């Protein structure tokens, strides 16, 4: 299955998780498209069969500036080509900011609902206050995601 990944990062951790996810999903037999600065036209041109959004959280639970252009395009246009695709979200946050913990990921998950993307497993929350290796912490979740995609094919 062809998985399009997009990410939003402030300090690079979400991009690192995304690169790790690409390697893991490709090793599991899925084709991947990932561009950390993708716009809607390029995302749609990739003709994804599944979506994976990976984002950190900034400020008071907002998305990083790097993801805002794509997020805005998706919300404004709600492209029908994405409706019904399987997908999932990985959220990076810091639980010491309890009011806004993983708020960026929650925004992406809500957007997936609006787009009609079928989330095939619960959002993964990676807590910066508990881990220094979010890309390694994501592996068990990525394994389940890869299997869930196989069941969708």
UniProtKB/TrEMBL annotation:
Give UniProt keywords alphabetically. Flavoprotein, FMN
What cofactor(s) does the depicted protein rely on? FMN
The cross-references to InterPro entries, in alphabetical order and at most eight, read:
Flavodoxin/NO_synth, Flavoprotein-like_sf
| Domain Flavodoxin-like, first and last residues per copy | 3-146
Q: Which NCBIfam families match?
A: PRK05723.1
Any idea what this protein is called? Flavodoxin
Q: Which organism is it from?
A: Pseudomonas quercus
